[in-house]
Write a structure and sequence with these properties.
Elements lengths: L4 E4 L9 H6 L12 E3 L10 E3 L10 H4 L27 H5 L6 E3 L4 E3 L5 H4 L6 H5 L5 E4 L1 H7 L3 E9 L2 E12 L6 E2 L37
Parallel strand pairs: 1-8, 7-9
Antiparallel strand pairs: 1-6, 2-3, 4-5, 7-8
Length: 221
C-alpha cells in the first residue's frame, strides 16, 4: 500500500522548469538538479515530462542491486538514497541498470547523484522541493486518497513494463481511471550489467508500445 509519496501527473506538466530550479536548492546536491525534464516532441508540441527517481522496490531497486560497493542504501520506508560518497567508486553500473534513466554521474568527483525524495524534508513530513513549487500539480506529494479526493476519476500505477520485465515502484504515475497496468515503458538499449542484460533489454517492445523508449527512459550520461 502506498504511503505518502510523489505522484507524477504528466498531463499537467507545462515545462516551466520550476521543479528543476527548486531541486537545485536541495542541501544534499545544492547547485545541481536531480530532475530530468524531457520534451519528447520538441518543436512540434509543448509536451513535457518530469522524471524523478521512482524508488523501485521489486524487490530491490536495480541501481542498488548492481552496485559493487554497496553505496546505494535503501531506508526502512523504501526511499532509495543517492550514493554514499564515502563508498561510491563512480563505476556507473547504477546508470546502466536504471530503467528510467535517473542516476547521474559526476565524472570529476566520480560520484553518482540522484533524487532521494528530499529525504531531509520528507522524513520530517515536509513535501519534496519539486512538489512544493510545481504550479500545476504535475508533481503531487501526498497519499493516493488525498490525490483522488482532489482529482476524482484518476487512478495511479506503480507498475511499468520494459519488454517482459515489470518494475514495481514507490513513486506512482497518474493514469486515467480505465487505464490498465502496467504502464508500457518502452524498450531499453542498455549494456549488460555484471554479465546480465539490463531490465527490458530484450529487443521487444512493451505491450501497447511502438518499441521506442518512452520519454525519460534509458541511461543519461
Amino acid at each position: 500500500m502506498l504511503g505518502r509519496t510523489i505522484f507524477i501527473d504528466p498531463g499537467r506538466c507545462i515545462g516551466c522548469q520550476a521543479c528543476v530550479s527548486a531541486c537545485r536548492e536541495c542541501d544534499s546536491h545544492r547547485g545541481k538538479s536531480m530532475i530530468h525534464l524531457d520534451y519528447p516532441d520538441e518543436g512540434h508540441t509543448v509536451a513535457s515530462l518530469p522524471t524523478v527517481c521512482m524508488h523501485c522496490e521489486d524487490p530491490v531497486a536495480p541501481c542498488a542491486e548492481v552496485c559493487p560497493a554497496e553505496a546505494i542504501l535503501i531506508t526502512a520506508d523504501g526511499v532509495v538514497q543517492e550514493a554514499d560518497p564515502t563508498r561510491c567508486i563512480g563505476c556507473a553500473n547504477c546508470v546502466n541498470a536504471c530503467p528510467f534513466g535517473v542516476p547521474k554521474i559526476d565524472l570529476e568527483a566520480k560520484l553518482q547523484m540522484k533524487c532521494n525524495l528530499c529525504y531531509d524534508r520528507t522524513s520530517y513530513g515536509l513535501a519534496p522541493m519539486c512538489a512544493t513549487v510545481c504550479p500545476t500539480g504535475a508533481l503531487f506529494y501526498g497519499t493516493v486518497e488525498e490525490l483522488q479526493a482532489e482529482r476524482p476519476g484518476v487512478d495511479v500505477s506503480t507498475l511499468f513494463a520494459f519488454g517482459d520485465t515489470v518494475v514495481s515502484t514507490g513513486v506512482a504515475m497518474v493514469v486515467p481511471g480505465e487505464r490498465q497496468t502496467p504502464v508500457p515503458g518502452g524498450t531499453l538499449n542498455l549494456i549488460e550489467v555484471n554479465g546480465r542484460p539490463a531490465p527490458g533489454n530484450d529487443g521487444r517492445p512493451a505491450p501497447g508500445n511502438d518499441g521506442r523508449p518512452a520519454p525519460g527512459n534509458g541511461a543519461r550520461a
